[in-house]
Design a protein that fits this description.
The complex is a heterodimer of chains A (252) and B (253). Chain A is built from 10 helices and no strands. With 252 residues, chain A is mainly α. Chain A has 2 domains: 31 residues; 217 residues, MetI-like (MetI-like fold), CATH 1.10.3720. Chain B has 2 domains: 132 residues, P-loop containing nucleotide triphosphate hydrolases (Rossmann fold, 3-Layer(aba) Sandwich); 70 residues, no CATH class. In chain B, strands 4-1-2-9-8-3-7-6-5 form a 9-stranded mixed β-sheet, with helices on both faces. The chains are: A mainly alpha (252), B alpha/beta (253). Chains A and B meet through helix 7 and helix 8 of A and helix 2 of B.
Chain lengths: 252, 253
């Protein structure tokens, strides 16, 4: 318990130290505000009412969560479908590996052509980036299940469903979460790229707006907000993992 | 008495595209109800394949496989218990829930199964570990839990595929003694695959020797050493006679 407390204290300390270093650097170096604002000036950016912070946070957050949710559902579902049919896997898996090679950011302009401006294309951007690692790690987790465990169930003439529900799904869960953690970070990046490419709302859009007026504190604030959304998503995944996966089975 | 397992001229061919690999060319032997038969041979001699045929996991390509007899009818879906080289416990389940897995799959009544799982855990010396996770147990303890799991649905036949192969020598000897104890109390027919020659003789009421490439029955003889067996019997002259007989068959003498 004490050891845990110490670790938390150190984690907090490193964050505080970073902010302090930032403050000192700006103050002692006399760095102009439009190059790098101080922490205080960055916070002041929140007071600008016409930046609509909370509305934009909501928009970007919704895009990220929607795209990520879709990515998890489709990624996991496809990987599971592959365990039901070897042919299906042999057909789609190489294709998916190739598709994964496409730099998803390069799809941005196309997605905008197909789906216009707005939240949908940005969610799709987040989805397209995060779905592959989730799918590929889940598929790997399902493959890594010892064949003898499947033999054990088959020797008892267990049904396909029992095999799935009692062995395959729980066995792959640590991998599903490993993929979900990677995917969470990527989904945030995807949505922001989408907003950069073409959008009329959201934190990425706001960043482009304030860039024109060299409002660097607002850009800093936007980056912090985006990071906080990402941390919230990641934290939720972590909490879910802690709840569902036995400690020893977790994939670090 | 009618044999519980009757194998005659059993053949197994693995096909991969056009290539054929003869895994077992001729396996012929009988196992009486309640026997503990050791199946010994070098690695890759098809021992595990034979077990899988007995478990109904692989079809055989020739010969006859008959399980059960009039007095001991055999239900292929619920009369097989399996133990593998690795304990293969489910990491996310506590020990008691692990032991219950076969009962769940077969849909056996819950309360009774739990009761039975507890008494089996007591039998294998794991009382007090019911609510632990597998990683909290040593390798030997995990394998004991795996043995309890193989017995929970009260199968007539227990198939063991080198169950102690991954354990250190001392633990292995201890587990051998415990297995004999379990076998005596649970009254099961056990087919025990091993490549340990002394283990095969020590455990078996009968030893079946297979030679490799493709697996062929080389010998099949009863072990006439009284029960209960103790470790010092390994130094008896008769024990040496049996092990030398097997070494010779496997071309190691």
């Amino acid at each position: 318990m004490n050891e845990n407390l110490g670790r938390y204290a150190l984690a907090v300390a490193s964050h505080v130290a970073l902010v302090a270093a930032w403050y000192l650097f700006v103050k002692l170096g006399n760095v102009p505000k439009f190059v790098m604002p101080s922490p205080g000036e960055t916070l002041d950016a929140l007071l600008q009412p016409n930046y609509n912070w909370w509305w934009n946070v909501g928009v970007t957050g919704a895009e990220i969560f929607a795209g990520y949710f879709l990515g998890v559902v489709i990624g996991v579902a496809l990987a599971l479908a592959f365990t039901w049919s070897k042919t299906l896997e042999a057909f789609f898996m190489p294709l998916l590996v190739s598709l994964n090679m496409i730099p998803k950011v390069a799809l941005g302009p196309l997605i905008i052509v197909w789906f216009k401006y707005g939240m949908l294309p940005n969610s799709l951007m987040a989805f397209s980036i995060c779905v592959f690692p989730i799918l590929l790690t889940t598929a790997r987790g399902l493959r890594e299940i010892e064949p003898e465990l499947l033999d054990l169930v088959r020797s008892l003439k267990g049904s396909r469903w029992q095999l799935f529900a009692k062995i395959q799904l729980p066995g792959a869960l640590p991998y599903i979460f490993a993929g979900m953690k990677v995917g969470a970070i990527l989904a945030v990046a995807g949505a922001i790229v989408g907003e950069f490419l073409g959008s009329d709302k959201g934190l990425g859009y706001l960043m482009l707006q304030v860039q024109v007026t060299l409002d660097t504190p607002a850009m800093f604030m936007a980056v912090i907000m985006i990071t906080l959304i990402g941390m919230l998503l990641y934290g939720m995944v972590l909490a879910l993992e802690r709840w569902l996966v036995v400690q020893d089975a977790r994939v670090e | 008495m009618e044999p519980f397992i009757h194998l005659s001229g059993v053949k197994k061919v693995y096909r991969r595209g056009k290539a054929e690999h003869l895994a077992i060319s001729d396996a012929t032997f009988d196992v009486m109800p309640g026997e503990l038969v050791s199946l010994v041979g070098p690695s890759g001699c098809g021992k595990s394949t034979l077990l899988k045929i007995l478990a109904g996991l692989h079809p055989h390509d020739g010969g006859e496989v008959r399980l059960g007899s009039k007095d001991h009818p055999f239900d292929p879906s619920r009369d097989v218990g399996m133990v593998f080289q690795a304990p293969l416990l489910l990491k996310w389940r506590r020990i008691l829930e692990n032991v219950l897995l076969p009962a769940e799959i077969l849909g056996l009544p819950q309360a009774e199964s739990r009761e039975r799982a507890r008494s089996l855990l007591a039998l294998v010396g794991l009382t007090g570990y019911e609510d632990k996770y597998p990683y909290e147990l040593s390798g030997g303890m995990q394998q004991r839990a795996a043995i309890a799991r193989a017995l929970v649905h009260d199968p007539k036949l227990v198939l063991m595929d080198e169950p102690f192969g991954a354990l250190d020598a001392l633990t292995r000897e201890k587990m051998n003694l415990e297995l004999l104890e379990i076998w005596k109390k649970a009254k099961k027919t056990i087919v025990f695959v091993t490549h340990g020659i002394s283990e095969a003789v020590f455990l078996g009421t009968r030893v079946v020797v297979l030679t490799a490439g493709p697996a062929k029955m080389a010998d099949n003889f009863p072990i006439d050493i009284p029960h209960p067996r103790t470790l010092d019997m390994k130094t008896h002259e008769q024990f040496g006679v049996y092990t030398r007989r097997i070494y010779k068959l496997l071309g190691m003498e």
